[in-house]
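Reply to thread "Modeling small-molecule complexes from scratch"

Following up on the discussion above, here's a worked example others can learn from. I took a protein sequence and the SMILES for 1,3-dihydroxyacetonephosphate and predicted the complex. Inputs first:
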Amino acid sequence: MFVLVNLKAYPCDPVAVATAARDVAEASGVRIAVAPQAAHLDAVAETGVETWAQHVDPIAHGSHTGHTLAEAVADAGATGTLCNHSEHRLTLADVDGALDAAERTDLETVVCANNPDQVAAAAALGPDAVAVEPPALIGGDVSVSTADPDIVEGAVAAAGAVDPEVDVYCGAGVSTGDDLAAAADLGAAGVLLASGVAKADDPRAALEDLVSGV
Ligand SMILES: O=C(CO)COP(=O)(O)O
C-alpha cells in the first residue's frame, strides 16, 4: 500500500512530519510520501522522505505569474504530484495539460476524483494513479472505506475498465491502520490522507498506527 500524506495548508511543522514519515517508511517498509506546500518542498525533500507536490499548473516556462511550474517542483525535489484535488479542481483540459507538464518532468501523477464516473474520465487521461475522495467525507472522522465502501469498489472497477495500468487510491477520513486495511480489502492500492496525520497531536504515532497492519 502507498500512503500519500497531503499536508494541505494545515499549520503543522512540515519537516517534523516529513522526518517522521521517512522514519516510519524505513522501519515498516511501507511506501510513504508527503505533499507539503510548494514553498516547503525543498525542506521536506531534504529529509529524504518521498516528496510530492499538491498541484502543478498546465504551463511551461514562460510568462506565467502565480502558477506552479512542474520544472520548479521537480527541481525542489518532488518526484510526484497530485492533480485536480477536491480543494483545487481543474477543467478536464487543464488536468490533461497538468499531466503533460508532469510527464515532461518525470513526476509521478495522481488525479483526484469525486466518484467512479470521474475516476473513469481521469483514468482515460493516462495518469499513474487516480484517487477517489468523496468531498463530503474529507476532513471527517469516518473513513471512506467504512462510510462508502461501494464508491471505492466502484472506482477500482471504473479505472480497471478504462486502463488496468492505472492504480486506484482512496481518501477522506482515513486515519488508522484499520482504515488502511479496509481500503486494501476493497482493492485500493494506496490511501491519500491529510488531517489524520497533519492535525494529529503526534504525527509519528499516527503514521505508526496507519502502517501497523500492513
Ligand atoms: O483530501 C484529503 C487528502 O488529499 C483527505 O483529507 P482527510 O484525510 O483530512 O479526510
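What I'd highlight from this example: The longest strand covers residues 108-113. Residues 6, 85, 133, 138-139, 171-174, 192-196 surround 1,3-dihydroxyacetonephosphate (CB under 6 Å). Questions welcome below.
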